[in-house]
């Protein structure tokens, strides 16, 4: 061992930057930032754990990371996991999701780990969390699995005990007595605890008079406190101590919702290009239509939860019907505006070569 | 995940319909002719056939007949810009001018457990 007490005196010191990220991590973070709006702390938490994993410094015999996502519904908790999966595996569905609402009764744990010996269904109930299932999305380059426990506040006591073991020892014993190793897993947990209070705060219902639902810094602070207090009240200290990061998702501000809308509309255009290739058509929405979509698809209570569906129902379905009836063909540019009666108006510039009708 | 074979010789529409059905949570496979559809049936299993009525070569009705010859209860939805034709091999008709959201609703109906039994009767 060199005598470190003397090295400082004899050698020139090089300043190191422990906050710097490697190229792979920076790329990962950029991908997340391009797709997730307004949830910086969640991105930072995931990026930090990913950097630790890539450096091979994740603690042995524990999951790569245990993250708890708190916050109002529609703020993007599950979406962040989907984007992480897309960034790592190119597939937003490349993760294992355990919907805790399906495990509210003690016996339902058999769906997750299989029935134990002596019980009906032993060796017949396929377990969800098997070693094969965990390695399903892993690649030669990336031996990492994302596991999401959604709405953990709804889990039964039996699932809680299971979860405590997973978070602490990265180990799970199935009904057939086989062991599952979760040390290559990044565990996400989402929780809507305090959602009612958070909604009240977001809607401005606290105080002597109702306030306007303007999302500001103090509101975010209050929502953070409300969510953390609710989590501490519900979850035991053993559980809280096993978490690496607790992230409270913020209410989305109007300008962030607008940004999300632009991202979603761009995704629809990308889908059309991907689906039909070179013979695609384009579309654009007027500012009035964008405002209408925001009004229909977002609100302080549910955030941007319904935005995708509203776009699908009103824009995508409409465009598909135009294609089906031969009104839109490849190369067309469809403009979508708002009619005086509030409905959507689809128009296109006259094109000399536009087909009369190709419907069969 | 339920598997749906979508057949239409209008390639853009066929791919667009598949994309929308994927967003709805189905595994949708496109085929741009009845011959291609029958080849797909040889290779994979499907839960539902959605086909255009008038196509070059073999029509949607002929395709439905060929599929029902192998599996008499197999659910078939025909999309058409024309009036429905009486045919025992078709579960549901859908006018193309009202393709969406009609198609999503009809698929949901055809694939629901109760409907499968009803169709089979």
Number of helices of chain A: 13
Radius of gyration of chain B: 13 Å
In CATH, the homologous superfamily of the largest domain in chain A goes by the name P-loop containing nucleotide triphosphate hydrolases
The end-to-end distance of chain A, rounded to whole angstroms, is 81 Å
Order of H and E elements of chain A: HHHEHEHHEHEEEHHHEHEHHEE
| Count of all domains of chain B | 1
Q: What's the helical proportion of residues of chain B?
A: 40-55%
CATH class of chain B: Alpha Beta
For the largest beta-sheet of chain A, the strand count, sense and barrel status come to: 5 strands, parallel
Q: Return residue spans of chain A where pLDDT drops below 50 for at least 5 consecutive residues.
A: 205-214, 354-359
Which stretches of chain B of 5+ consecutive residues score pLDDT under 50?
none
The whole-angstrom Rg of chain A is 25 Å
Strand order of the largest sheet of chain B: 2-1-3-4-5
What is the number of beta strands of chain A? 10
Question: Nutshell version of this structure?
Answer:
The complex is a heterodimer of chains A (360) and B (121). Helix content of chain A is 42%, strand content 13%.
Question: How does this structure look, described?
Answer:
The complex is a heterodimer of chains A (360) and B (121). Chain A is built from 13 helices and 10 strands. Chain A is of the alpha/beta class and 360 residues long. Chain A has 2 domains: 23-251, Rossmann fold (3-Layer(aba) Sandwich), CATH 3.40.50; 255-348, Helicase, Ruva Protein, domain 3 (Orthogonal Bundle), CATH 1.10.8.60. In chain A, the strands form 3 sheets. In chain A, strands 2-3-6-1-7 form a 5-stranded parallel β-sheet, sandwiched between helices. Mean pLDDT of chain A is 84; it is low at 205-214 and 354-359. With 121 residues, chain B is of the alpha/beta class. Chain B has one domain: Response regulator (Rossmann fold). In chain B, strand 3 (48-52), helix 3 and strand 4 form a beta-alpha-beta unit. The model of chain B has no long low-confidence stretch (mean pLDDT 89).
């Amino acid at each position: 061992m060199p005598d470190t007490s003397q090295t400082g005196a004899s050698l020139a010191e090089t300043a190191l930057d422990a906050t710097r990220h490697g190229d792979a991590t920076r790329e990962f973070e950029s991908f997340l930032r391009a797709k997730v709006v307004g949830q910086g702390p969640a991105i930072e938490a995931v990026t930090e754990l990913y950097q630790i994993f890539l450096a091979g410094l994740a603690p042995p015999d524990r999951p790569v990371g245990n993250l708890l996502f708190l916050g109002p519904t529609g703020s993007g908790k599950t979406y962040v996991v989907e984007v992480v999966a897309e960034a790592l595996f190119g597939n937003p569905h490349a993760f294992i999701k355990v919907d805790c609402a399906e495990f509210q009764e003690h016996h339902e744990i058999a769906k997750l780990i299989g029935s134990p010996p002596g019980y009906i269904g032993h060796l017949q109930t396929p377990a969800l969390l098997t070693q094969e299932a965990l390695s399903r999305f892993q690649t030669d380059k990336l031996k990492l699995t994302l596991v999401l426990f959604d709405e953990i506040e709804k889990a039964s006591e039996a699932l809680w005990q299971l979860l405590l073991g997973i978070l602490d020892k990265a180990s799970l014993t199935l009904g057939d007595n086989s062991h599952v190793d979760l040390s290559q897993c990044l565990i996400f947990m989402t929780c809507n605890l305090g959602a009612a209070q958070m909604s009240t705060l977001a809607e401005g219902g606290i105080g002597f008079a109702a306030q306007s639902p303007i999302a500001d810094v103090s509101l975010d602070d209050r929502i953070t406190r409300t969510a953390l207090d609710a989590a501490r009240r519900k979850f035991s200290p053993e559980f809280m101590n096993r978490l690496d990061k607790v992230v409270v998702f913020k209410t989305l501000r109007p300008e962030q919702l607008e940004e999300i809308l632009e991202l979603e509309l761009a995704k629809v255009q990308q889908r059309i290009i991907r689906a039909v290739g070179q013979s695609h058509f384009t579309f654009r929405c007027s500012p009035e239509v964008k405002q209408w979509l925001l009004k229909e698809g977002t609100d302080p209570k549910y955030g941007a939860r319904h935005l995708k569906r509203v776009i699908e129902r009103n824009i995508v379905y409409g465009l598909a019907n135009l294609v089906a009836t031969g009104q839109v063909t490849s190369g067309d540019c469809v403009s979508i505006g708002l009619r005086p009666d509030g409905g959507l108006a689809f128009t296109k510039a006259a094109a000399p070569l536009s087909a009369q009708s190709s419907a069969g | 995940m339920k598997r749906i074979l979508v057949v239409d010789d209008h390639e853009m529409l066929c791919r667009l319909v598949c994309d929308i059905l994927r967003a709805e949570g189905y595994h949708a496979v496109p085929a741009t002719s009845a011959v291609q559809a029958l080849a797909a049936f040889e290779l994979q299993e499907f839960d539902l056939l959605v086909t255009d009525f008038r196509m070059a070569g073999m029509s949607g009705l002929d395709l439905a007949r060929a599929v029902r010859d192998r599996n008499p209860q197999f659910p078939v939805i025909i999309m058409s810009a024309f009036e429905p034709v009486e045919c025992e091999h078709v579960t549901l008709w859908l006018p193309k001018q009202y393709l969406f959201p009609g198609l999503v609703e009809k698929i949901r109906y055809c694939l629901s457990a109760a409907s499968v039994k009803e169709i089979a009767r």
